[in-house]
Amino acid sequence: MLHTLMQSPFKTDMTSLLHFLKPADDFLALQDGVLVSFKKNFFLKLLLTSNANLYVLDADLKARGLINKASDSFLKITYKDFISLTKINKIQMNW
Predict the structure, then answer these.
(1) Segment 57-90, tens digit of pLDDT
(2) What is the second-level CATH architecture of the domain 2-94?
(3) Model's pTM, two decimal places?
(4) Pick from 24, 47, 76, 78: most CB atoms within 10 A?
């Protein structure tokens, strides 16, 4: 399953998101959701315990001037990679 976080983690029910996020799942932070990828972030610590595959959209980090703020635990991907994730994951959940 692909989970996409498009808004700030502070405006999201992160408890529910973390409950549904499984080790085999893919998680993509984009738009304002990229804030969840910040180093030393409370939510990042919780995401890491899920063992899900963590991705962040590189273009959205750049657009917000935050390219150097993302944790190395997130793989920075392009829009083309995003499309590939949607093809791989037939089931998606938008947060």
Answers:
(1) 999 999 999 999 999 999 999 999 999 999 999 9
(2) 3-Layer(aba) Sandwich (3.40)
(3) 0.94
(4) 47
